[in-house]
Amino acid sequence: MADENVIEIANLSKSYDGVDAVAGLNLTVPRGAICGLLGRNGAGKTTTIKVLLGMVRPTSGSARVFGLAADDPRASVEIRRRASFVSDDKDLYDALTVDEIIRFTAAFYPRWNDDLADEYLERFALPEGRPAKKLSRGMRTKLALLLALSSGTELLILDEPTAGLDPAVTDEVLKALVAHAARGDVTVFMSSHQLADIEQIADRVAIIDRGRAVLNGELDEIRASYRRVRVVFDGDAPDVALRSAGVIRSQRNGRVLTVLSSAGADGIRAEVAPLEPVSVDELPVTLKDIFLETVVGEG
Amino acid sequence: MIVKPNPSLGVPIYLQLMEQVKHAIETGALRAGEQLPGIRPLAEDLVINVNTVAKAYRELEREGIIELRHGAGAFVTGAALKARGADKFRAAQTLVETTIEKLRARGLSDEEIRRLFEAELAGLKRGGGQGG
User: Fold this and answer.
1) Are the beta carbons of B118 and A283 separated by less than 8 Å?
2) Do the Cβ atoms of A178 and B9 come within 8 Å?
3) ipTM of predicted complex
4) Which among A6, A33, A281, B105 is least surrounded, fewest beta carbons within 10 Å?
């Protein structure tokens, strides 16, 4: 099957006791991408991941991984054989040693790669004989990552992989992910609050808010098209409703009208020209800016 | 030779990489016939996405700046330098230097100067004109 999209989520909803965790989510991740999943706490990131892994059944809509329906129990077994998951609590068999955990996990993956496991063991400087419960947070993360990377799976799903790590370990984790994705047919789907990490290594990003995707696309396209446009007037900025394509938000403050646009600044320049502004300039927008502007503040 | 791109610059990373390669050619850091780093090692080295590096190389090849030789890697073409003009570039560099000096003399901070340049460039781009 030419499944171009490794993950395909269409109109997905999941509610717990009448509360919507995910509400009409649409999201796709093409093969070979590193896709960052961003959103505030409670935005629906973890629920989305759980649906993909068959740990939670959707209330409505569909989620497909490798073209297989995630809520079909048989398909889900297949999905979990071909995808590896690193949970945010880096769930490990605490009584086992590093070495034992590696051997134990290897048994469950038909395409497990011993060479790769040895390579990461050395690279991450993990103490083979130490029980998992005595590992530091950074080491736990690196072990969980080693298991995921060595499993020979085509899809890596990571829930907050760099949360609570010091900058040096974060860098090691990001490097390993980039290198792994560069090896070929691997897709990475990772949720994170670390916008800078995502901005650095991802080529795609999805921002979800209150269970819906507010943005899903290529990061380089977003970099090229999102702009903050600042229009300065001689007197107070006029109270206009801009009609240009891509206007996300505009704000008047004294003589200045500031507009966030997802479609460059051309349209806005043309639209405000008849209002005779003193100056119009445009500034680049960071992923953090976009995030803060697109997710809704606490009501 | 190629340094980490700035992910929050508002310029696509593949374009930043392309500019860096062109800049290296203009300054003489990279010469015709010389080899560029491999796509994978460069992605790992800069800790950025391999797809992004591949895109930059593909576009550089399309512009005739580099040549991808099967199995051997990417090389700077002979046409690359002529295409950009090293003399013109050095003259422009001097112009930028003097401009910056003048602005500093007027009491502007480097941060303010950088913002002015960025805003001006972002504004110029909309016309599609590159002026060179």
Assistant:
1) yes
2) no
3) 0.74
4) B105
